[in-house]
Each structure stands twice: as structure tokens, then as C-alpha cells.
Amino acid sequence: MTVITKKIQIKSRSENDILDITDKVSEVVKESKMENGAIIVFVVGSTAAITTIEYESGLRKDFPEMLSRLAPREIEYAHDNTWHDGNGHSHVRASLIGPSLAIPLIEGHLTLGTWQQIVLIELDTRPRERKIIVQMIGD
């Protein structure tokens, strides 16, 4: 069994920026020449998340609206009272989605549905440069 770890750097523009990183992850996998195993995609940081979504305009609008209903920006967060940085909701939202995703690798291809893309969701209140770790385990 082989383990290969690669990094992807990506810049976000603002809160609720949803970035399709499927091609970047696919390229890393292709370069690895790994055929079968598992891929872990992990974002470093506590105010961003990784998930899958159908990357289309309706869902890119719906997803942040859903998050604002679950963890509204306008309510009081103990985090903000402690740090005074105004991103308590960002931490809560990132925790709900999670920082990582596992994807099966079969015959050199990520096992994703036709309309399923890997996305990074920026949840912080300002633009950020994000480091994404792609770890491949297999043969």
C-alpha cells in the first residue's frame, strides 16, 4: 500500500464563496498514477469546509441561505465575545459541514456522480488563502 500526500493552494474571495476544486483534485490523483484506494480531501483551518454539491447557480445560492438559517450571522456567539472577530457563525457553519471528504478511487478515477463536484466553501468573513491536503492511500 502506498500513501501520497499533496497540497493545493486556493484563494477565496469572500464569505459563502463556493469553489469547485474537482479538477484540481482530479489532476493531483492523475499525477499520482494510483489506481485503487481512497482519497481524503481536507481543508486546513476552522472556518472553511469541504463537501460535494451539484455546482450550479441555484445550489450555490441555496446552500449559503440554508447555512444562514441554521447558524445566523446576527445572533450572539460566545466566540465573538471572546475574540471580537465577528466570525463565530463561520466556525459553527464550518463545523456543521466538516473539513474533509473521503472519495473512493477505482481504476484511477474518483468515484463521483455525474452532477457531484468537490467544493471548498469559504465561511470566514474575509478573503483567505486556503491550503487543501489531498492524501491518497492505495495501490
Question: Any overview of this molecule?
Answer:
The chain is α+β, with helices and mostly antiparallel strands and 139 residues long. The protein has a single domain (2-138), classed as Jelly Rolls. Helix content is 29%, strand content 37%. The protein has helices at residues 22-32, 57-70, 78-83, 88-97; strands spanning 2-11, 18-20, 37-43, 48-53, 100-106, 109-110, 117-122, 129-138. The strands form two sheets. A five-stranded antiparallel sheet has the order 1-8-3-5-6, with helices on one face. The chain has a three-stranded antiparallel sheet with strand order 2-7-4. The longest helix has 14 residues, at 57-70. It is elongated. The chain starts with a strand and ends with a strand. The mean pLDDT is 97.
